[in-house]
Amino acid sequence: MSAAAQHRPGAHDGLAAAARTHRDRLVTCAERIATTQSPHDVDGEVADGIVGGPTVGTLALEVGLGTGPVVIGDVVVTTATATVRGHLGWSCVMGADAQAATAAAICDAALGAGHPAGPEVAALVRAALSEEQRDRDADLARAAATRLVSS
């Protein structure tokens, strides 16, 4: 079984999904987290806030076949890094969306920091992953209904 097939979605996947399916809720949550933070140094080194990005770039999109991975194209993504209460958060969202990438990084850091908004972020992650799974299941069901059967 390929690594992609064995992959189990986690917070990063859910935050990227939230950027696609619940973008406004993600941005609002991140804004609340950011406005409740008081910038401070952690071990005298890193202040809370945006650490890196947002940066737009491309990634090669690969699919696993029996003969090995095959690159089928490039995907535009935006990455960002942020800290909340000294915890580093990272995001990578599809498309050139600096606001969504920054929001996802802030929410990821908040989850790691045990921020009071953590349960809200976790609920958003679960909702986004569930919605995308329902959409995938519906797409597969529609595709299965169109298959030709040879006799």
Question: What does this protein look like?
Answer:
The chain has 151 residues and is an alpha+beta fold. The protein has a single domain, classed as 2-Layer Sandwich (Double Stranded RNA Binding Domain), CATH 3.30.160. Helix content is 48%, strand content 30%. It is built from five helices and five strands; from the N terminus they run H-H-H-E-E-E-E-E-H-H. The strands form two sheets. Strands 3-4-5 form a three-stranded antiparallel beta sheet. Strand 4 (68-84) and strand 5 form a beta hairpin. The longest helix has 27 residues, at 118-144. Residues 1-9 and 41-46 have low confidence and may be disordered.
List keywords for this structure.
alpha+beta, three-stranded antiparallel beta sheet, single chain, globular, Double Stranded RNA Binding Domain, 151 residues, 30% strand, two-stranded antiparallel ribbon
Q: How would you sum up the global shape?
A: globular
Beta-strand percentage range: 25-35%
User: Strands across the major sheet, in which order?
Assistant: 3-4-5
Largest sheet: 3 strands, antiparallel
CATH topology: Double Stranded RNA Binding Domain
Radius of gyration equals 18 Å
Query: What is the percent of helical residues?
Result: 40-55%
CATH class: Alpha Beta
Structural class based on helices, strands and sheet pairing: alpha+beta
**What is the count of structural domains?**
1
CATH architecture: 2-Layer Sandwich
Short summary of the structure?
The protein has 151 residues and is α+β, with helices and mostly antiparallel strands. Helix content is 48%, strand content 30%. The strands form 2 sheets. It has a 3-stranded antiparallel β-sheet.
